Sequence to fold (369 residues):
Amino acid sequence: MKFEKPIYVTMPSLAPLSEVDAYLEQVWKSGIMTHNGPLVRRFERDFATWSGLPHLVAVANGTLAIQLALRALGMPPGSEVITTPFTFIATLSAILYEGLKPVFVDIDPKTFNLDPAKIEAAITPKTRAILPVHVFGNPCDVDTIDAIARKHGLKVVYDAAHAVGVKVNGKSVLEYGDVSATSFHATKLLNTSEGGGIYAADERIDRTLRELRFFGYDDAKSVVRVGTNAKMTEVNAAIGLANLAHLDDVLSDRLAKYTLYADLLSRSDALAFQKRSDGCNHSYFPVVFRSESALLKADEALRRENVFARRYFWPSVNTYRTIVPDAERCAISESLAERIMCLPLYGKLSEDAIRAIAGIVLESAEGAA
Ligand SMILES: Cc1ncc(COP(=O)(O)O)c(C=O)c1O
Fold:
């Protein structure tokens, strides 16, 4: 059965327009569009409260969130940052943009996250930080990673772009490490259209982050460091505030839809899935095929029915030879990247559509097996 309208891998979770309008009216009335205005401050406060955090620094996007997090830690140029090859390009480009050297450590084949057991072998006298990613909202082994960092005097920046709403040991996963950077991009569970957030428990780092995002100005408007413009606008905060009111519903809906996909697909030996830890937010539905050709066959079968899944993450970022020509090989990540695809998952996707998509994937994968 061909879907009449294309089904994409995701669609933004959006509050009713009237709820956004109520906030936008405040912007129009105040005339304040940006510069850490009242809605940005309210969004920071309300998101922090929702997450159980004391504060948050809202920024223009999740990529700048990682860059500012790295910059705030004050590492010398060329410092080595141990990171994962199984991520979106933004994690890698943020490290390079900050003049730091990525050192790739392979992933755990089950969780798809940076493998903590391989970190220590990659530490050198130049290593200053570890930058893991909570892949698909599945939390890293934060206790082990943070313990390794403490033992070796390293900083930890978590790329928490996928990790809104993720909890570990009963608290927000953003509380782990020295700094966590998340994304409020349109495709994320909570969206401000474009946007990002940074959490650092240390008040000095928090202050530095606020200065970095605002041209290097401190509260007294003195330039105290080299900064940039990474401010979130009032319009983005308005969208975020309206969407935040629905975030609990978005999370429970994702869990229900993830569970339906998993029930339908897990009966096949031709497919494998991410091993999820407690606290995962189920923001994506990744499925792993036995081979790249099996994946391509399923992708083609879906496209014939007007369904557009997404090869995510692909390729493994250590293989981007133009920007990391001498990067370490990472066999597990490279193999996974060739065989993994995210299936459509979003609020308005119907149960019938999920059943139909799962049927197409099953038929194709079993045929290819
Ligand atoms: C793992 C990861 N890190 C960082 C980012 C960058 O976030 P943004 O698009 O808000 O810049 C993304 C975006 O999709 C991501 O998936």
